[in-house]
Amino acid sequence: MLDEAEFSVKSTFNVTTERNAFQDIGSFEELDCISQFLTAPYPGNGKDLYCNSTWDGVSCWPTTASGSTANVPCFEEFNGVKYDTATNASRQCLENGTWSPWSNYRECKPLTLPEDDEFYQVLWDMKEAATIYYVGYGISLVALSLALFVFFFTSKT
């Protein structure tokens, strides 16, 4: 959990509300998103509807005019997989000033590594080692079974 001393907010809320807000923050990215919203000037003349900056668990969506689409660069890494940041994710700000419940990350494609990359070479070597391991132990088990079979049948006569 984040400590209240790490982030100060000028707010009209009471201390209990601020503490509850800090308990709900799950990551530094979300905290950064909230701090951008709190420090950036609100766009427009105050009469137009906007969707507030929000964190959807993956990306920070900026304050966006109602009826338009917000675009943010795709994340660099998600669940240990690297992604192409040259493409964008999008999210629709509805006419009533609320965000669409769905963020479109379909354009965010994982990076493919070249076949001659060292990572693939290590994986191939591990695959070969595992194959040799299982084949070797399989042959050894068959030879041992055959030896025991010969031993037991020749010792009875």
TrEMBL record:
Q: Which molecular function terms from Gene Ontology are attached?
A: G protein-coupled peptide receptor activity; peptide hormone binding
Instruction: Name a GO CC annotation attached to this entry.
Output: plasma membrane
Give the residue spans that cross the bilayer: 132-153
Disulfide bond among the record's keywords?
yes
Q: Which residues form the G-protein coupled receptors family 2 profile domain?
A: 32-112
**Gene Ontology annotations of biological process type:** adenylate cyclase-modulating G protein-coupled receptor signaling pathway
Pfam families in the record, alphabetically? HRM
Q: Give the source's domain of life in one word.
A: Eukaryota
Keywords assigned by UniProt, alphabetized: Disulfide bond, Membrane, Receptor, Signal, Transmembrane, Transmembrane helix
Question: InterPro entries under this entry?
Answer: GPCR_2, GPCR_2_CRF_rcpt, GPCR_2_extracell_dom_sf, GPCR_2_extracellular_dom, GPCR_2_secretin-like_CS
PANTHER family named among the record's database cross-references = DIURETIC HORMONE 44 RECEPTOR 1-RELATED, PDF RECEPTOR-LIKE PROTEIN-RELATED
What this protein is called in its record is Diuretic hormone receptor
Organism field:
Caerostris extrusa
Lineage of producing organism: Eukaryota, Metazoa, Ecdysozoa, Arthropoda, Chelicerata
